[in-house]
Amino acid sequence: MGGMTFVDIRDRYGITQLVFNQETDAALCERANHLGREWVIQVEGVVAERSNPNKNIPTGAIELLVETLTVLNASEVPPFTIEDETDGGDELRMKYRYLDLRRNAVRKNMELRHRLVMLVRQYLDQQQFLEVETPILIGSTPEGARDFVVPSRMNPGEFYALPQSPQLFKQLLMVAGFDRYFQIAKCFRDEDLRADRQPEFTQIDCEMSFVEQNDVLEIFEGLVKYVFKTIKGLDMTEAFPRMTWAEAMRLYGSDKPDIRFGMLLNELKSCTEEGLFTVFDSSEYIGAICVPAAATYTRKQLDELTEFVKRPQIGAKGMVYVKCEADGSFKSSVDKFYTGQQLASWAEVCQAKPGDLLLILSGETHKTRKALCELRLEMGHRLGLRPKDQFAALWVVDFPMFEWDETVERFFAMHHPFTSPKPEDIALLDVDPGKVRANAYDMVINGVELGGGSIRIFDRKLQAKAFEVMGFTAEKAEAQFGFLMSAFQYGAPPHGGLAFGLDRFVSLLAGLDSIRDCIAFPKNNSGRDVMCDAPSTIDPAQLDELNITLKPIK
Amino acid sequence: MGGMTFVDIRDRYGITQLVFNQETDAALCERANHLGREWVIQVEGVVAERSNPNKNIPTGAIELLVETLTVLNASEVPPFTIEDETDGGDELRMKYRYLDLRRNAVRKNMELRHRLVMLVRQYLDQQQFLEVETPILIGSTPEGARDFVVPSRMNPGEFYALPQSPQLFKQLLMVAGFDRYFQIAKCFRDEDLRADRQPEFTQIDCEMSFVEQNDVLEIFEGLVKYVFKTIKGLDMTEAFPRMTWAEAMRLYGSDKPDIRFGMLLNELKSCTEEGLFTVFDSSEYIGAICVPAAATYTRKQLDELTEFVKRPQIGAKGMVYVKCEADGSFKSSVDKFYTGQQLASWAEVCQAKPGDLLLILSGETHKTRKALCELRLEMGHRLGLRPKDQFAALWVVDFPMFEWDETVERFFAMHHPFTSPKPEDIALLDVDPGKVRANAYDMVINGVELGGGSIRIFDRKLQAKAFEVMGFTAEKAEAQFGFLMSAFQYGAPPHGGLAFGLDRFVSLLAGLDSIRDCIAFPKNNSGRDVMCDAPSTIDPAQLDELNITLKPIK
């Protein structure tokens, strides 16, 4: 540009324009012309007002008229462009994560993560919570997901486990009288991975003594409101709705409903006359959502939706639609089975208005509700009812205490084995454990389970009873959780708590699709760090010291 | 006590006296008489001023006249008394750590730890440091201490390692342009244990870009001063002294000198005439400390000190003393070899005054200095010169870059392999690596190495050179640290950092003898958690999934 050379210099805080003037110092300008992308330089000069300010960047009003230039480090041409919209694929960006992290879009997420944990600590500290570090090398507990284990050199044949959560330790801290505990805790699960799962993840882990469910909900609702106010400038003045698990399943087909929009599930079984349509006759459940102003959907669009619900992840066998035409008539894929009047009665149940579209699925209750939930979310997405900058939070409460596992034919704890039943349901433990509701709660925002917790059992006998329902012998319970049961004998206070997924919390605030984007050095779906090439083989001498050998790989 | 029953109720915040009045409510009073130690109760009543206030406790001015009493949980009699001075032995207290943590003395340490990390985060946040979590499941790096490893189920035959520190990741964050990073980071070392070592420990881990050594020292000196000011009310207004490693070794026989007191090491080799005393003649080094006003030490006391230095941990062969008598004469264990005048010349070198005592050790320089250091610390202790409430901090700088390892006959990095040499010593890398000084520094307080760090190499070629000196082939360097070397090619800024041992920091502030007392759930010297009984055996099916087998134990 005539006698000038312009160079953008970038640091963590932004981009500033450097100006080298051919007339003032030709040699310096010549050197500037040979600078390359991503070089690290040091400059001195005079800050001046730009004649053509760049209003898109904070430092766009000024430029630096450079007087001295030192090259601190040169750079090869990077394997992808360091820009918000990069040309680098996922694998390449992960291999060179240290370059990917230079991108504004990624760095912003890390800054947000830092800010969030600072705020969380500040809030909890003010509420008298103590941060206590619990150990990473702990004992293995078979109940729950698969543990990562660590062979002990000093105790041959024995293994530590990495914690899936600090659950037992935080309960012991309550027994220790710590009253209010928190920790930003690393947790580990050796599970197969997907976009929102990593082998290691971080929890905002909390526990309180002398509380009932409402105390916990109020403290942590306060935390979430404080975070949204401070980071997003959002005033969440209303109390978060509290919805029972049963209601969430009935109205949304999900225990983590996205309540940014309506389009609730309606049950049609009672108003679909028997003997007309065999598919409906053989269905335990028939449910419909009413999509506003979508009666104009074409055959092609409806076929697309049918394909959507028939995908194996969703698993519906088919979809029935009813168009509530603007003229008050009805057009449906089951026209030949039902009269207009019958269809009208369905529309009435769904509170459909002329111009709306009913989408109907049928089958086994639980599965069909889940499929309808997916369809509802998809329609919400298509209709733009799920904007990322709008946040709708609620508490889901009264979860079932146990789930029956068909495969091993026993009850498992839905939350975890230390969750207390609702006092009014304790009597059901003996007669109908599947009906027992737990003092457990989840916080859900925009359809994401941000966290959850429960009031815990603090009575040795009740804990023993719970283990019994889950099919533990007294010996097995003692072997696995003896120290907790023993602790309950020495004056354990009533206690309860909650854990938020930090990775999810950041993703939600940043509007990310994958938690990977808010983790500095994530693993890929095979659990590999492709940058460091970990895991890797280790020296046979080390295996020897650890008293283990590798099995030949088949 | 007449018609009254008094009960002390304890929570995290203190002890309050409850009063049950026989006259007001006899039944309630009767129930209070049956409460046991460590029971968990809930009471309601009226707060009243105590007629006999207890000035030793914050709530000693009031009492609660109880109107209702609910027993929330009873308690067995605890296996030891929950008091500052408990009757429980170490093993018992660890087994019931949840009861041990109820003791005021232990809980206070956890509260201090919480407060310290809050302050550290606050300070670093204000200085624009970003807290970034680095992974716990990383690749194994053979250079350094022994790694804990984690078999990977998804990558059979391969292992993750647990980090000994986030070193490589924090350097990569600097390459990523993060400018200022910190993390309160869990670190792991599979080493044999002792009082100040745990298999997992916590570091305040920091790194900065575009800095020189002085920038790092100033920031972290500021942090330490801020902590001492806030927690201890101490104004450390003076700049911390900076002492070279060579000077510290010469004057204190240690790279972590306790400078709360003098009693420096004096070198006597040049003033001990040859041919008089064979032990001195054959010694490379002869050093003395001058113990003030200790010439009155008895034979027995001196014999005791001789035994002290001859212990295997210290390893001196014997000790020579010179009493500088009040009358100006000298009395020494080497009287028969040296004249009074010769002894006087030693006393002069040591700046001894009449009434002082010289203690002299001789032998190989490094070993003898270390032994003298131990003797100096012991004498400082005996003379009450090391009070726990007095704090003397300094920086030790200019560490040697390499140490020669006799066993494997190669140089190792004294700090770590990424430490940069002092620019003026780079030329020595080729000709005399043992003489190269590093841009490395330690902060030492009261003889404890609180932390340390270095300015790092950020140039690929210099890093390759350093690896070469340490006997790495180019292939081995590439295999182990290739991703770091590669990162240096893409515009790495100059950077450096530091890590403080959090456990040590808390111990120092709390005046503890063992870091265990500031860790909620520590391991014993065999790496066991005796409360949870971890590590433990795991299910053979799990070993199978992990593709490993146990070797039969010999």
Q: How would you describe what is shown here?
A:
Two copies of one chain form a homodimer. The radius of gyration of chain A is 29 Å and the shape is globular. In chain A, helix 4 packs across helix 6 and helix 4 packs across helix 15. The first copy, chain A, is an alpha+beta fold and 554 residues long. The mean pLDDT of chain A is 94. At the A-B interface, helix 3, helix 4, strand 5, strand 6 and strand 7 of A face helix 3, helix 4, strand 5, strand 6 and strand 7 of B. Strand 22 of chain A pairs antiparallel with strand 22 of chain B.
Please identify which CATH superfamily of the largest domain in chain A we are dealing with: Bira Bifunctional Protein, Domain 2
Radius of gyration of chain A: 29 Å
Number of strands of chain A: 22
Biggest sheet of chain A, strands in spatial order? 5-8-9-21-20-19-16-10
State which percent range the strand residues of chain A make up. 15-25%
Largest inter-chain contact set: A-B, 115 and 115 residues
Count of individual domains of chain A:
3
Named at the architecture level, the CATH assignment of the largest domain in chain A is 2-Layer Sandwich
How far the N terminus sits from the C terminus of chain A, by CA atoms, comes to: 65 Å
